[in-house]
Amino acid sequence: MLSSRTTIWLATGLVAGVLGACASGSGSQGMSRGPSRDATVVRVAAPPDTVMQRAWEVLRNDGVQPRWFSRAAEDTTNVARMESDWIYVPRVLDSATFGSLSEPEKYIKLLFWAEPERGGTLLYVDALYNPMSLPTEPVQWSLMRPVPGAHPAWQYVQLFGQNLVRRLEAGTSADSEKP
Q1: pTM of the entire structure?
Q2: Burial code of 13-52, b = ≥16 C-beta within 10 A, e = fewer?
Q3: Which among 24, 50, 102, 178 could disulfide-bond with 46, CB atoms 3.0 to 4.6 Å apart, if both were Cys?
Q4: In the prediction, which pLDDT does 107 show?
Q5: How many CB atoms lie within 10 A of CB 129?
Q6: What is the rounded radius of gyration, in angstroms, for the C-alpha atoms of the chain?
Q7: Measuring CA to CA, how many Å separate 10 from each of 15, 44, 74, 84?
Q8: Residues 88-131: pLDDT tens digits?
């Protein structure tokens, strides 16, 4: 499943962009754990800061509040991390079929890690949910689970990826026109 999502995103042709967002919040235990083995991995021909800024913009356009962003001042590797607020999937993807999903399963969090790679960035995207209860703050990370492959949230992740591609491509064409 991971390779098919990776292939879809790669085939979409992610291209360039740059992040000017600053660190905020006190941190996230979910982010400190790093990407899971279930994370979608995307290779992007842009620096991590650019990729993360465009991801921030796409979330905001979908009415989702990016909750936490981090890039340590002493970080010489240029790694950027971001966590979304809780996303109620029926609100951002009203065309999805939710069948027998319980109400808690309709809320997800997206976690992002952007790491430099030769010629661009590796963007890891984890979609998590708490199958036991409705969203809480602070997040009960020990209860969070990866969103199953057949979950409608992956449709939103795919749509998010397409919107991210458009943003990056728009940034590239606008940047190439500058003298």
Answers
A1: 0.74
A2: ebbbbebebeeeeeebebbeeebeeebbbbebbbbbbbbb
A3: 50
A4: 95
A5: 24
A6: 16
A7: 10, 8, 31, 23
A8: 999 998 888 888 889 999 999 999 999 888 888 899 999 999 98
